[in-house]
Task: inverse folding
């Protein structure tokens, strides 16, 4: 199939490269000229394991191209995947659909033959109805179908998630579009995934409901962890004890610093905003948002306790600053709330981050080290913020020459008893 992917970010690049790998001809377009020029020169704008090799291979096989010419790319293609961002609006919790509607303008001018227009971006229910209305003229009704095909990939595991999905959801009542998309996805449905053809609105709701449920699951175990801390109970025992119940499931039950990233925070907010519009009270999702938004306060209280209420001049090292391991994505990471507060209180903050220096921090105040050893040297407190493999078996006594350094492990990577045996003052979540 000839495919055009509009928006070459995490979702667009991964989807484009994977569709090319499955034998399709794909053009990934973006309005960001630098991004496309870099991609043409083999520079991948995001960190995603395996993506560089996948892109290189498919570019070499001439199945994958990059372009800034949106019109030309649309004209050449049979299926258009919209993969642009849908961030939260600045002054409300609603999803900002301005990028989607910019794309719709480009589409309207270039409907030269039958095309399937697919929203892979996460969009509030009824967005596809609006896109269809905006595209329709008196003469072009049969020239397109608008389909919702939400994407469930996770950053850090994106290629595997795309190639071996739990399910593919295609929301359309057009038989023609459904047959073409089922055929497009057939190589990966055969492997493991399941293909669901639903109504377009149901597909839009499925994506938000899935993210809100997972965000709630994480938040639930974080609140249970708060209780465990008061009771001297290990939350990892509780996670295991409830997660082995098949009705509950073990995943997304690891207590930590709270959810972040580009999806859960914005999608839970957008879902609540949609529910208001349709006069429905999603009280559970609202509570999840509140609990997660305020989780950093609990972490800060704990940091103060660990440092005996004296943050001034304390050297604090962050191991990892992204919202989770396996990605360079800083969006809504816990570190964005913790680090500025600690700096304000006079702490000297440094960090090591496997995906490199981050521009969001003031370079003079928040010091980046390109290796763990230099970052940890002389630290009063080491905060393990993300669960990268390289943080899992460190010899802290060798990394830190201070006698009385402490560790706050926000990912429960180490055993408290082993740390005690090593004479390290070790604190973690819910234990
Ligand atoms: N990141 C994830 O893990 C993930 C997972 C599932 C779904 N989603 C959803 O997919 C969508 C995209 O997310 P992302 O993380 O890939 O975003 P991103 O910000 O990484 O990439 C979006 C890209 O779209 C481009 N763009 C914006 N407007 C454009 C236009 N008019 N024409 C051409 N290009 C344009 C931007 O320049 C950018 O490169 C969002 O709706 C998101 O919620 C994201």
Result:
């Amino acid at each position: 199939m000839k495919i055009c992917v509009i928006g070459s970010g995490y979702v667009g690049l991964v989807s484009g490269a994977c569709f090319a790998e499955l034998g399709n001809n794909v053009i990934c377009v973006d309005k960001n000229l630098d991004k496309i020029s870099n991609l043409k020169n083999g520079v991948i704008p995001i960190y995603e394991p395996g993506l560089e090799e996948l892109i290189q291979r498919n570019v070499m096989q001439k199945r994958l191209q990059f372009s800034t010419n949106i019109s030309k790319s649309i004209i050449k293609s049979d299926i258009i995947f919209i993969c642009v961002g849908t961030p939260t609006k600045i002054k409300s919790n609603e999803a900002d659909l301005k990028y989607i509607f910019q794309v719709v303008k480009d589409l309207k001018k270039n409907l030269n033959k039958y095309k399937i227009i697919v929203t892979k971006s996460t969009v509030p229910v009824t967005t596809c109805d609006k896109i269809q209305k905006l595209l329709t003229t008196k003469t072009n009704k049969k020239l397109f179908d608008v389909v919702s095909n939400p994407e469930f990939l996770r950053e850090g595991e994106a290629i595997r998630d795309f190639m071996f999905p739990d399910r593919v959801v295609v929301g359309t009542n057009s038989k023609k579009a459904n047959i073409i998309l089922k055929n497009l996805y057939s190589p990966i449905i055969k492997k493991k995934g399941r293909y669901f053809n639903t109504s377009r609105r149901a597909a839009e709701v499925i994506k938000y409901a899935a993210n809100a449920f997972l965000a709630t699951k994480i938040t639930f175990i974080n609140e249970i962890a708060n209780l465990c801390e008061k009771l001297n109970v290990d939350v990892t025992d509780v996670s295991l004890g409830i997660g082995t119940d098949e009705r509950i499931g073990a995943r997304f039950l690891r207590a930590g610093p709270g959810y972040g990233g580009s999806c859960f925070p914005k999608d839970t907010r957008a879902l609540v905003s949609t529910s208001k519009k349709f006069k429905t009270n999603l009280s559970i999702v609202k509570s999840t948002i509140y609990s997660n938004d305020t989780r950093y306060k609990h972490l800060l209280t704990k940091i103060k306790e660990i440092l005996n209420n004296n943050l001034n001049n304390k050297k604090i090292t962050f191991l990892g600053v992204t919202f989770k391991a396996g990605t360079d994505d800083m969006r809504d990471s816990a570190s964005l709330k913790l680090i500025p507060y600690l700096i304000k209180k006079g702490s000297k903050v440094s960090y090591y981050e496997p995906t490199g220096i981050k521009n969001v921090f003031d370079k003079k105040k928040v010091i980046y080290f390109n290796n763990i050893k230099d970052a940890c040297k002389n630290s009063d407190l080491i905060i393990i913020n993300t669960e990268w493999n390289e943080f899992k078996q460190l010899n802290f006594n060798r990394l830190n020459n201070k006698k009385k350094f402490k560790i706050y492990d926000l990912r429960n990577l180490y055993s408290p008893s082993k740390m005690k045996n090593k004479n390290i003052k070790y604190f973690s979540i819910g234990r």
The chain has a mean pLDDT of 96. Residues 200-231 form the longest helix (32 residues). The chain is about 45% helix and 15% strand.
